[in-house]
C-alpha cells in the first residue's frame, strides 16, 4: 500500500466470543439495508461505494451480539477497578458514519489560504479536499507547449528555473534587515532614547555614547543575518549553475539549470538530479519505466516507479519533431498530487503523479529519461514546500514581557518623581535662579549680559522628564535580548553534542532547528505522540496469517538463524531475498502439496496476492560471492515490503516488474502475469487492487486493504463461517499489537473486464471529476470479493520506549497517543509500552452521532468522578501518607469517528473535562487535522506547555500546532523533521532532552532574565539616589562611558557563561528522580514572586551601594568623578559576587568570566580616567590612594550581600524545594540519605488552569 497509512473510518471493535460479559447502559443503533449492484460501473457505482459500508457491520455486529448478548456497553463496578474497560457508545449499522461523502479529508497546505481549518468537521466542504482531488478547469490550467518554450511563455512569462532562497540583496540588506530587527519593541525604545539624546536641550550623555549600545546590538545581529544569507546565496549559486542536457535545435546541449524554461525537453542520465518538474516522455526502459529516489525531497531512500505514456515512448526528439500540448494544474505544494492532460498526435492522454519527475529526485537504475519541463524554479513543488518550521516564541520570553512592562512603569515612576521634585524645587527657588550655579538665567561671562536657555517652569519639567528617561534608560536591559540569543546558541551546542541523544542506527545527532524555545523543553506538561514510527520502529516483519479461516500463528515458525531461505536459479546464479522471514513449516508443507485441495488453492492465491498486489520494485544486488545475488524489494510502504518478503520466503518470489507485466517464481516455476489494471491505495477507499491476466486467459482482481473497508466488499453469501473466523483472527492479531490487512480476490468475466476497461479509459481521460470517477471504477471491481485471509505484521517497539513513558508519567507529564491504527492494535501497544497498565480503568468512547457522543462524555465524566471519589476513600483507609482524590489512574480511549462530532463543536469542552481527569488518552483512527485539533483542544484551554512528537507527514500539523514540535528521523521520510523545532532519532531521547537539557535550560534562562533585571535596576537606582541629592538636575557622577560599558563589558560575559554552563543538579540525579522535572511545570525558576523578591533585594543593594560612600565622604572635598568611580566599581563587584553566590558548579570558564569581568572593569575605569580629554581625569588615582575607599568597598559588599545570604540560608533550611533537597544529597553523597529524597519531594500536581 502507499506510504500514507490508513487514517480514517474507524473499525468496529470485534471482541473475542469468549471475551466480555456486558451490561447495557444505552445504545445508538440505526439500521441500513443498502443493496449491492454492479451492473453499471458509473451510474451504479455510487451504490457500490455506499453499500460497502453496511455489509461488514452486519457481519461484525452479529459477532458482537453473540459475544455480548446484544449489549455493547460494559460498566465496571466500583469493587472492580482493574483493567476492565468501560465502553460508552455503540457502533450500529449507520452507513453514514462510514460513507465516503462524510469522511474526513486531509487538507494540503496550499489549499488553506486564509480560511479557517475545522479539525473535526464533516460533510462536503470543498475546502477540505486535497489538491489531488480537485479537478482542472480552463481558468486554473497551465498550458505547456512541448518543445516550444517560446510559445509556452508567450502569453504568460512563467518562472525561470533560477532559485533564490536568500532573503536580501546588497541593496536591500540594510533597510530590510533593520526593518526586521525593529520588530522588537525594545529596539524602538532605545532608538527613541538615542534620538532624544541628540537634542541639545536633552543631551545628558555624549551623542556617540548614547547610540553605541543599540548600534552594537544591531551590528551583531546584522552580521549574523548577513553570514546566514551569504551561505544561502552561495548555495543558490552552486545550484543554479549546475548543468543539464536540454534539447536545442534538435540536439541535446549542456545548459545551466538557471537558464531552463518551461516547455523545453530535458534529458536526465542515471544518478543525475532532476533540474525541474518534468512530465516523463520516454526512458531507456522499453516499457517506459523510470526509477527515482526522492531522498532529497522527502528523505525516503526507497525507489519509486514513474511511467512514460506508451504514445510518447518511441519518440526520439533528435530524429523527429515532438510537439503537443500539456494542460496541467497550476503550481501547488502537493508533492503527491499532479493532474494533467496531454494532447499529442491527435490523442488526449491523462497524466497523474506517476508520470511526473520532481525537482531534486535522482534517476536510479535507468540509463536515461526524457521529460518536458512543466514547473521551474520557485514554482516547482519542492521549492513551494521549502518554507521551514513555523515560528514560535518561548513561553518564558512571553511572560518576560509583562515584567518589562512593569519595569517600564517603574521607570516612568522614577522619571515622574524626578520631574515633579524638579518642578517643586524650581518653584521654591524661582527668585534665586539668577545666582544659583547651574541654574543662573543670566550669563555674566561676557560684557553683555544675556540669558541662558531657560525655557520656563513647564518646559523645564517636561525636559527633565525626558532627560530622566535617557539617564535611567538601562532599566530596560537591551543586552538581555542578545544575551538570550547567545545563551541559546551555547545550550544548543551541548544538546547537539550530547552522546546520549546520538542514534547509532541512523548515524544521526540531535538537531536544534529552532533556537528560540530551548527553555520551553523544561516546562512540558502534555506530550502528544504518534505511534507508528515514533513509539515503534516502523520496520515491519511478517508474523502470521489467517488463510481460509485457519490461523497460522501457532508459534512453530522456524527461527531466522535456522532457516535455509527460499532461493531460485537465475542465469546460473543463486537468487535469494535480502531479508529473511520466519516461516511456518506446516504452511510450507501445505504449499508444496500444490493446489489439489481447496485449502491449497486458497493458500496459493493468498501468497500470489501478496506477491502481485503492490507497487514493489525488485532490485538485484551483487554480493561478495559471484555465484549468489540478493533481491532487494524497494517500495514506498514498509508494509508492502514485509508482505512481499513473506511471499518470497514461502516460494512466491517477485522477480521482475514492468508497467505491463510481472514475473513471479512460484515454487520453482516461472510465471508471467499481465498487469491489466492497477488501482492504487487512497485514503478514502483504504485499499488497492491489481487486475492480472493469467497465462490461461483468466482475469482475476486481487485486493488488499484495511479491514474497515475490505470486510464491507466481501461477498458474505459465499462462506459466512470463513468470514467470522477471519474476523476473530483479525481481532486476535490486533489485540497482540499487529498491523492487519485483509486479502481478497474474484475472477472477472470477459464482459465484466470489458466493461471495467471501457469505464477506466473514460475515467482516466476525463477533464472533470477524474478522481471521483476512478474511485467509482475501482469500486466496480472491488466488490463481491471472495476472502482469502488476513495478514499480521509486527511493528516492534523502539528500544527504551516503555521506560521512557514510565519516566515521563513519573515526572507528571501526561502522555497522549494519537494514531491512525485501529483501536485494538493501539491498546495492545499501549500495554507493551507501559502507557496503559492493568490497574487502570479504561473509558472507551466509540460513538457515531453527536448526541451519542454527548451522552457518552457525560456518562464518562460521571463515572470518572465516582472512580476518583472511590480512589480517594481507598487510599485514605489504606493509610497513605499523602491521600489525594483522583490519583487512581483512568485511561480514555476514543476513536476518530467520535472526534468528528466532538471537535469544533460545543461538546469539546466536555471532552477536555473528561481528558483532564485521565492519566492517559489514546486516540485511534485519527486523521492528521484531528491530531492538530486535539493538541489545540488542550493548548487553548490551559496554560500548560504542550509537546508533539512524530515521524511522518501526517504528524506535521500536530507538530506545528504544539508549543514544541519534535520530529523523529524515521522510515517515513523527513517531512516531520522539516516541520519540527527539534529532531532526533529515537523516542527514548525525549527523557534526556526534557529531564536534563530542558531542566537546565529553563533553570538557567529563568535565572539569567531575573539577574539581568536586577543588574540593571541596581545601577539605575544608584543614579536615581544621586539625582535626589543634586537638585534633580540629572547630572551623573558615573561617567557616560561607564554607563555604556556597564551592560556590555563590565557584567555581560559572566551572565552568558553561567547561562550556558551552570548546572543546578547532575545528570545522574535528574535522570534518577523524574519528579525534579516538576520545577519547570510549577514555574519555580521564573515567576512573579521571584521577580518582586529580586526587586526588593535590588532596592536594598542600591541603598547600600549609594549611601555607604555618601555617608563616609559626607563633608569631605572629594570630587564628583572620584565618588562616581567608587560607585561604579562597587556596583560591578557586588553584582558579580551576587552571581558568584548563585553558581552551583564551578569550572575554570566561570571563574575566568566572573573574576575577569571585575578586573576588566578596573582596567577600563583606569583607562577612561587616564585620558585628559575626558571628564574625571585622574579621579580613580585620587580616591584609591586613601584607606577610606577600600573600607567603603568592603562595607558595601558586606552590607549588600549578607542579608541575601541570610535569607537564602533560612529559606533552604526551613522550606527547601525538591532541587535543594537533591542538591544537598548530592553534596554529601550518602546513598542511604539519597534514597529518602523521593519521599520528601513535592507531589506532582497540575498547575492552575486558565
TrEMBL record:
GO CC term (a single one): plasma membrane
UniProt-listed CDD domains: P-type_ATPase_APLT_Dnf-like
Substrates-to-products reaction catalysed: ATP + H2O + phospholipidSide 1 = ADP + phosphate + phospholipidSide 2
Residues that span the membrane, as ranges: 404-426, 461-482, 976-996, 1017-1038, 1044-1061, 1090-1114, 1126-1146, 1158-1181, 1187-1211
Membrane topology: Multi-pass membrane protein
Domain of life of the source: Eukaryota
Main localization of the protein described in the UniProt heading: membrane
GO MF term list: ATP binding; ATP hydrolysis activity; ATPase-coupled intramembrane lipid transporter activity; magnesium ion binding
Keywords tagged on the record: ATP-binding, Magnesium, Membrane, Metal-binding, Nucleotide-binding, Translocase, Transmembrane, Transmembrane helix
Domain P-type ATPase C-terminal: 977-1216
Region called Disordered, residue ranges: 1-20, 35-76
Residues bound to ATP: 530-532, 640, 681, 704, 739, 819-821, 925, 931, 954-955
Pfam family, one: PhoLip_ATPase_C
Ranges of residues in domain P-type ATPase N-terminal: 144-208
NCBIfam families per record: ATPase-Plipid, ATPase_P-type
Protein name stated in the entry: Phospholipid-transporting ATPase
Amino acid at each position: 500500500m502507499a506510504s500514507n497509512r490508513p487514517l480514517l473510518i474507524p473499525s468496529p471493535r470485534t471482541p473475542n466470543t469468549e471475551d466480555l460479559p456486558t451490561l447495557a447502559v444505552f445504545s445508538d443503533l440505526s439500521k441500513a439495508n443498502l443493496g449491492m449492484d454492479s451492473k453499471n460501473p458509473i451510474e451504479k457505482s455510487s451504490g457500490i461505494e455506499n453499500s460497502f459500508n453496511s455489509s461488514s457491520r452486519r457481519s461484525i455486529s452479529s459477532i458482537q451480539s453473540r459475544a455480548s448478548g446484544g449489549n455493547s456497553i460494559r460498566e465496571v463496578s466500583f469493587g472492580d477497578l482493574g483493567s476492565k474497560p468501560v465502553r460508552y457508545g455503540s457502533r450500529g449499522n449507520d452507513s453514514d458514519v462510514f460513507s465516503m461523502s462524510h469522511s474526513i479529508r486531509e487538507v494540503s497546505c496550499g489549499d488553506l489560504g486564509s480560511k479557517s481549518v475545522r479539525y473535526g468537521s464533516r460533510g462536503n466542504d470543498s475546502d477540505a479536499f486535497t489538491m489531488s482531488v480537485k479537478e482542472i478547469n480552463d481558468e486554473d490550467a497551465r498550458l505547456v507547449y512541448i518543445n516550444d518554450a517560446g510559445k509556452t511563455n508567450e502569453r504568460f512569462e512563467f518562472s525561470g528555473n533560477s532559485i533564490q532562497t536568500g532573503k536580501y540583496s546588497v541593496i536591500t540588506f540594510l533597510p530590510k534587515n533593520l526593518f526586521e530587527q525593529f520588530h522588537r519593541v525594545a529596539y524602538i525604545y532605545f532608538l527613541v532614547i538615542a534620538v532624544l539624546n541628540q537634542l541639545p536641550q536633552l543631551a545628558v550623555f555624549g551623542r556617540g555614547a548614547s547610540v553605541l549600545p543599540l548600534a552594537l546590538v544591531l551590528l551583531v545581529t546584522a552580521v549574523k543575518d548577513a553570514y546566514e544569507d551569504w551561505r544561502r546565496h552561495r548555495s543558490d549559486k552552486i545550484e543554479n549553475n549546475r548543468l543539464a542536457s536540454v534539447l536545442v535545435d534538435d540536439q541535446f546541449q549542456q545548459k545551466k539549470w538557471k537558464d531552463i524554461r518551461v516547455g523545453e525537453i530535458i534529458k536526465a542520465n542515471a544518478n543525475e538530479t532532476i533540474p525541474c518538474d518534468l512530465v516523463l516522455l520516454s526512458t531507456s526502459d522499453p516499457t517506459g519505466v523510470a526509477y527515482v529516489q526522492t531522498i532529497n525531497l522527502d528523505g525516503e531512500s526507497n525507489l519509486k516507479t514513474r511511467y512514460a505514456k506508451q504514445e510518447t515512448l518511441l519518440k526520439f526528439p533528435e530524429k523527429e519533431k515532438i510537439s503537443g500540448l500539456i494542460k496541467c494544474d497550476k503550481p501547488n505544494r502537493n508533492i503527491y498530487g499532479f493532474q494533467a492532460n496531454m494532447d499529442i498526435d491527435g490523442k488526449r492522454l491523462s497524466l497523474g503523479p506517476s508520470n511526473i519527475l520532481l525537482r531534486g529526485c535522482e534517476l536510479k537504475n535507468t540509463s536515461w529519461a526524457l521529460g518536458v519541463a512543466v514547473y521551474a524554479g520557485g514554482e516547482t513543488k519542492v521549492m513551494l514546500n521549502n518554507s521551514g518550521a513555523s515560528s514560535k516564541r518561548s513561553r518564558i520570553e512571553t511572560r518576560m514581557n509583562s515584567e518589562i512592562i512593569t519595569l517600564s512603569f517603574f521607570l516612568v515612576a522614577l522619571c515622574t518623581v524626578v520631574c515633579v521634585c524638579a518642578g517643586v524645587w524650581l518653584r521654591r527657588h524661582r527668585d534665586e535662579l539668577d545666582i544659583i550655579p547651574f541654574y543662573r538665567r543670566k550669563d555674566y561671562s561676557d560684557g553683555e549680559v544675556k540669558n541662558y536657555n531657560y525655557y520656563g517652569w513647564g518646559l523645564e519639567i517636561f525636559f527633565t522628564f525626558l532627560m530622566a528617561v535617557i539617564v535611567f534608560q538601562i532599566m530596560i536591559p537591551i543586552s538581555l535580548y542578545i544575551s538570550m540569543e547567545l545563551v541559546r546558541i551555547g545550550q544548543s551546542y551541548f544538546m547537539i553534542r550530547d552522546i546520549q541523544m546520538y542514534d547509532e542506527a541512523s548515524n544521526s545527532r540531535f538537531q536544534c532547528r529552532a533556537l528560540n524555545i530551548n527553555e520551553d523543553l523544561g516546562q512540558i506538561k502534555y506530550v502528544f505522540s504518534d505511534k507508528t514510527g515514533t513509539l515503534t520502529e516502523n520496520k515491519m516483519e511478517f508474523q502470521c496469517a489467517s488463510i481460509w479461516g485457519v490461523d497460522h500463528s501457532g508459534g512453530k515458525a522456524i527461527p531466522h538463524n535456522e532457516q535455509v531461505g527460499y532461493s531460485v536459479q537465475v542465469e546460473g546464479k543463486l537468487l535469494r531475498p535480502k531479508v529473511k522471514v520466519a516461516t511456518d513449516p506446516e504452511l510450507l508443507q501445505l504449499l508444496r502439496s500444490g493446489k489439489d485441495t481447496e485449502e491449497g488453492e486458497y493458500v496459493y492465491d493468498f501468497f500470489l496476492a501478496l506477491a502481485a498486489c503492490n507497487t514493489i520494485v525488485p532490485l538485484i544486488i551483487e554480493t561478495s560471492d559471484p555465484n549468489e545475488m540478493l533481491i532487494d524489494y524497494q517500495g514506498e510502504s514498509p508494509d508492502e515490503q514485509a508482505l512481499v518478503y513473506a511471499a518470497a520466503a514461502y516460494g512466491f518470489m517477485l522477480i521482475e516488474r514492468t508497467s505491463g507485466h510481472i514475473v513471479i517464481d512460484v515454487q520453482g516455476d516461472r510465471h508471467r502475469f499481465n498487469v491489466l489494471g492497477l488501482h492504487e491505495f487512497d485514503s478514502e477507499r483504504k485499499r488497492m487492487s491489481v487486475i492480472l491476466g493469467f497465462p490461461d486467459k483468466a482475469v482475476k482482481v486481487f485486493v488488499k486493504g484495511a479491514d474497515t473497508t475490505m470486510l464491507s466488499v466481501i461477498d458474505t453469501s459465499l462462506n459466512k463461517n470463513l468470514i467470522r473466523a477471519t474476523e476473530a483472527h483479525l481481532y486476535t492479531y490486533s489485540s497482540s499489537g499487529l498491523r492487519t490487512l485483509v486479502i481478497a480476490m474474484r475472477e472477472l468475466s470477459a464482459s465484466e473486464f470489458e466493461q471495467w476497461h471501457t469505464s477506466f479509459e473514460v475515467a482516466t481521460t476525463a477533464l472533470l471529476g477524474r478522481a471521483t470517477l476512478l474511485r467509482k471504477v475501482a469500486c466496480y471491481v472491488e466488490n463481491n470479493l471472495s476472502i482469502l485471509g488476513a495478514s499480521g505484521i509486527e511493528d516492534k517497539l523502539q528500544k527504551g520506549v516503555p521506560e521512557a513513558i514510565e519516566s515521563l508519567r513519573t515526572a507528571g507529564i501526561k502522555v497522549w497517543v494519537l494514531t491512525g491504527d485501529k483501536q485494538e492494535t493501539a491498546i495492545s501497544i499501549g500495554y507493551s509500552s507501559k502507557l496503559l497498565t492493568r490497574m487502570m480503568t479504561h473509558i472507551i468512547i466509540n460513538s457515531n452521532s453527536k448526541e451519542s457522543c454527548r451522552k457518552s462524555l457525560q456518562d464518562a465524566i460521571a463515572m470518572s468522578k465516582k472512580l476518583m471519589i472511590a480512589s480517594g476513600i481507598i487510599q485514605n483507609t489504606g493509610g497513605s501518607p499523602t491521600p489525594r482524590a483522583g490519583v487512581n489512574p483512568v485511561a480514555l480511549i476514543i476513536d476518530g469517528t467520535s472526534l468528528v462530532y466532538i471537535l469544533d463543536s460545543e461538546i469539546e469542552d466536555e471532552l477536555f473535562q473528561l481528558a483532564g481527569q485521565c492519566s492517559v488518552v489514546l486516540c485511534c483512527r485519527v486523521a492528521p487535522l484531528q491530531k492538530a485539533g486535539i493538541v489545540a483542544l488542550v493548548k487553548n484551554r490551559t496554560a500548560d506547555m504542550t509537546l508533539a512528537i512524530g515521524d511522518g507527514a501526517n504528524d506535521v500539523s500536530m507538530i506545528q500546532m504544539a508549543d514544541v514540535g519534535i520530529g523523529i528521523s524515521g522510515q517515513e521520510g523527513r517531512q516531520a523533521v522539516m516541520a519540527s523545532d527539534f529532531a532526533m532519532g529515537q523516542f527514548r531521547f525525549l527523557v534526556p532532552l526534557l529531564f536534563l537539557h530542558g531542566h537546565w535550560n529553563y533553570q538557567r534562562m529563568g535565572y539569567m532574565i531575573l539577574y539581568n533585571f536586577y543588574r540593571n535596576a541596581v545601577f539605575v537606582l544608584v543614579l536615581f539616589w544621586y539625582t535626589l541629592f543634586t537638585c534633580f538636575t540629572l547630572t551623573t557622577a558615573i561617567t557616560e562611558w561607564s554607563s555604556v560599558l556597564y551592560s556590555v563589558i563590565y557584567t555581560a560575559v559572566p551572565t552568558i557563561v553561567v547561562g550556558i554552563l551552570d548546572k543546578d543538579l547532575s545528570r545522574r540525579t535528574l535522570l534518577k528522580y523524574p519528579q525534579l522535572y516538576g520545577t519547570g511545570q510549577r514555574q519555580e525558576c521564573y515567576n512573579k514572586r521571584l521577580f518582586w523578591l529580586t526587586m526588593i533585594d535590588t532596592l536594598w543593594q542600591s541603598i547600600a551601594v549609594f549611601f555607604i560612600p555618601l555617608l563616609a565622604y559626607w563633608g569631605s572635598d572629594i570630587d564628583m568623578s572620584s565618588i562616581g568611580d567608587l560607585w561604579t566599581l562597587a556596583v560591578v563587584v557586588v553584582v558579580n559576587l551576587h552571581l558568584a553566590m548563585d553558581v552551583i558548579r564551578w569550572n575554570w570558564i566561570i571563574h575566568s568570566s566572573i573574576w575577569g569581568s571585575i578586573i576588566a572593569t578596573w582596567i577600563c575605569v583606569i583607562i577612561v580616567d587616564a585620558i585628559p580629554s575626558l571628564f574625571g581625569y585622574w579621579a580613580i588615582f585620587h580616591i584609591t590612594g586613601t584607606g577610606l575607599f577600600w573600607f567603603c568597598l568592603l562595607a558595601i559588599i558586606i552590607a549588600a550581600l549578607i542579608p541575601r545570604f541570610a535569607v537564602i540560608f533560612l529559606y533552604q533550611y526551613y522550606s527547601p524545594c525538591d532541587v535543594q533537597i537533591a542538591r544537598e544529597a548530592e553534596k554529601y553523597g550518602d546513598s542511604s540519605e539519597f534514597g529518602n529524597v523521593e519521599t520528601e519531594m513535592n507531589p506532582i500536581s497540575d498547575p492552575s488552569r486558565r
